[in-house]
Every structure is written in C-alpha cells, then in structure tokens.
Amino acid sequence: MLDKSFLGWPFFEERHRALAEKLETWANANLAAVDHDDVEASCRKLVALLGKDGWLQHTAPGGKEAQLDVRTLALIRETLARHDGIADFAFAMQGLGAGPISFFGNDAQRAAWLPKTRSGEAIAAFALTEPASGSDVANISTMARRDGDGFVLDGEKTWISNGGIADIYVVFARTGEAPGAKGLSAFIVEGSNPRLKIAERIAVIAPHPLARIRFENCRVSADALIGKPGEGFKIAMGTLDVFRATVGAAALGFARRAFAETAARAAKRHLFGAPLGNLQMVQGHIADMAVEIDAAALLVYRAAWAKDSGAARVTREAAMAKLYATEAAQRVIDAAVQIHGGDGVRAGHPVENLYREIRALRIYEGASDVQKVVIARAVAAAGS
Ligand SMILES: Cc1cc2nc3c(=O)[nH]c(=O)nc-3n(C[C@H](O)[C@H](O)[C@H](O)COP(=O)(O)OP(=O)(O)OC[C@H]3O[C@@H](n4cnc5c(N)ncnc54)[C@H](O)[C@@H]3O)c2cc1C
User: Fold this and answer.
1) Cβ distance 374 to 319 under 8 Å?
2) What span, in angstroms and rounded, lies between the C-alpha atoms of 362 and 291?
3) Ligand 1 proximity of 240 Cβ (cutoff 6 Å)
4) Which of 3, 77, 217, 330 has the largest CB neighbor count within 10 A?
C-alpha cells in the first residue's frame, strides 16, 4: 500500500492532490507493460501518449498556465518513475529539452516549438555535454561561427538523451564573446538538419535513447539563437536549476517503488517459521528506508515549493534535493535487493530493474560530487 500522507504536507495545494490521484489511475492503466528492449520505439510512443493525454502540458508554460509549477513536475516525475523509468525519462526530457526555449526564448521561438513539445508532436533534447567537457561545462569546444545572417556549428556532443529520435535539440556552443563560460550561446537545431549526424548510439545499464551527435558545417539561421550571444552558460544553468530538484523526484519514485516491493516481500516471504519482516534486522532496514524516503521527499518538495513561491534562484535547495534524494534512493534500492535475496538480482525483477535505473541519476545533471561543491559555495555565500 502506497503511503500518500506526504500529499498532506503544506507544500501542496488541492490541485496537486487531485493531479496525483488522476495520474495514478492513468499510470496503472498505461504503464504496466512498457517495452524496455526497443527503447527508442517506447519513448516515441510514450511521448505521444503523454502528450495526447495532457501530461506534457505541464512541461512548459503556456495555455492556461503562465508559469511552470515545479511541484507538479516533481509529482509527475515521482509517480511515473515509481511505475516505469522510461515513462519518467520521456516526460522529463520534454521539459528539460524545451526549458531553454520556455524560459529564455523569444515569442516566435516559443510559438514555434512549445505547442509541439507540449502535445508530444516534437521530441526534445538538451545538448550540453561534450567528450572533453562533462562536469567542466565552461570548457565546451563546439564552435558556432557567424556566417552571413546565420551561424555554422562544428563539434561533438555526447550522452545526449533522446539523441537520434529528437525533433529539436537545444545546443550549447562557443561563440567567443569572452573566454570560458561567458563565450557560449544556445541554439535551436532541428533533428532533420542534414548536418546533424548521429555518431554513436550509446548503450547503458538501464537502456534509454542516448547518443553522441556531431555537427559538421551545420548551418542554422539567426533566429535559432536563444537569448543573446554569450548567454549560453546562463541559459543552461538557469534551466538545470529549475529541473534539478525533479531528478531528485524521479529518484524518490524509484525509492518508493523499492520500498513497496520490499514491504510486500517482507510480509509474504516466510523464513524460520515466520514472515521475513519479523526479523529485527530486516525491520531495521525497513525503518532506514522509510526515514530516507521521507527525508528525500521533504528536500525535493521544499526545493519545488521554494521555486514556485517566487524564489529567483533555488541553487542550494535544488542541489540538496538532487544530492540527497539520488544518494538515498541508491541506498534504499540496495537494501531492497538485499531483502529480496536471490530474486533481487534476477534479471527483470522490479528491484533489479530499479538497481540499474537509479545509478545514472547520481551522475547526470551534475554529479553528486559537483552538487556538494555547489552546496558548499551556496552556504558560504549565505554566511551560514
Ligand atoms: C544516462 C545519462 C544521460 C545523460 N543525458 C544528458 C543530456 O541529455 N544532455 C547532456 O548535455 N548531457 C547528458 N548527460 C551527461 C551528463 O550530464 C554527464 O555525464 C555529467 O555531467 C558528468 O560528465 P562526464 O560524464 O564527462 O564525467 P566527468 O566530468 O569526467 O566527471 C567524472 C566524475 O568526476 C567527479 N567530478 C567531476 N567534477 C567534479 C568536481 N568539481 N568536484 C569533485 N568531483 C568532481 C564526479 O565524481 C564525476 O562523476 C547524460 C549522462 C548520462 C549518464
């Protein structure tokens, strides 16, 4: 039985509780049998379905919603992740990929793309990382040189989620207004651009569409530039700042699923003449899991609530939420595998799947070590 008491916390309003209930019904009806072998096909199908049924409307402001509601995003990610990792991925990337356009794009860019990413008609990608600059974002070497009334991009991006299936990539490239972080700009590149090549499809422990992509003399028009030249780093960080807490929400969803599987297992499995859950050491694990889940939820929804309440930046709150929730989920899932015994490592078992799903969340959108640096700087700046 899922513990929904957190929905009574003061971070939430009635509309959040209603949405959570509606999404739970939707997820039960639609996510029982997602194909994890052909993940590109699954992602395409899921983006279309999430769009058709209105869930992607929450990934970018527009229509009735004038601004993004991070609590809604987090609740959706948590719920989808609890049901299926690919469904969460498909939803999340529509938000992150479209984020630079929804927060920093002009009216024409927003009108051209957001209705499509919100309806599921266009799949979105966020192309920041390069082979030689992962955590070291300011070291990006993909070049965008001015050419007549447009720009020409040359270089390589890697680990790009939705790479190979995206209709639109937001690409960060060096335009050279200044050295390092101040010389980057953000561009919209259409997946159909013949000079955007898929150099490699990358297989990972929990499969989802990922690619290394290459730009070879890739021309885009001047209206592909998001914001002003030199604002790319600000645009990338501003976007990641909003979505970072929702990575924590996805981790929370994985952890809650691991907890539910474990609680059921501990009640059903009998050892030494009694349910497994009667063993005090197993109870100790279950108590630790429950505490970590509540602590993660508090940090995730604190960060989301702070952003929704008008905080200009939530760097510290979002970094704490992402760091703690992803690390805690790893521990919770590891305990779940342990309590399941051999079944915990049986290929295809839900906890085995979670064990693979959680790992990358401690690396992408800022590795845990990087979050610690961010938190340390933020608390030092605040004088606490
Ligand atoms: C599944 C997956 C999906 C991804 N999707 C996308 C995407 O859609 N778009 C995109 O642009 N990128 C994406 N990435 C890339 C991701 O953001 C990078 O992998 C991440 O930023 C780390 O970069 P790196 O892999 O080059 O590792 P490196 O930068 O080489 O870092 C390796 C390790 O060094 C340590 N480290 C790094 N910096 C510091 C520091 N300052 N202090 C202390 N320790 C540090 C950390 O332990 C880190 O994990 C994805 C990655 C994965 C695995």
Assistant:
1) yes
2) 20
3) no
4) 77
Which of 129, 137, 157, 362 is the pocket-test mutation for ligand 1 (most atoms within 8 Å of CB)? 129
- pLDDT higher than 90, residue 240: yes
363, 365, 377: which to mutate for ligand 1, most atoms within 8 A of CB?
Answer: 363
* Contact assessment for residue 235 and residue 61, using Cβ atoms and an 8 Å cutoff: no
- Ligand 1 atom closest to the CA of 137, numbered from 1: 21
360 Cβ closer than 6 Å to some ligand 1 atom: yes
> What 3 state SS string does 333-352 have?
HHHHHHHCHHHHHCCCCHHH
The candidate with the shortest Cα–Cα distance to 116, out of 166, 161, 163, 164, is 166
Query: Partners of 298 in the beta sheet?
Result: none
Q: Is the pLDDT of residue 66 over 80?
A: no
Location of structure tokens 């979105």:
124
**What backbone phi and psi angles, to 5 degrees, belong to 172?**
-100, 125
Reported confidence tier of residue 101, pLDDT bands at 50, 70, 90: very high
Q: Is the CB of 138 under 6 A from ligand 1?
A: no
Average confidence (pLDDT) over 8-12: 97
The answer to whether residue 177 is catalytic is no
pLDDT, residue 313, reads: 82
pTM of this prediction?
A: 0.97
Q: What angle do CA 211, 216, 219 make, to 5 degrees?
A: 110
Q: Answer yes or no: is the C-beta of 127 below 6 A from any ligand 1 atom.
A: yes
How confident is residue 61, by pLDDT bands cut at 50, 70 and 90? confident
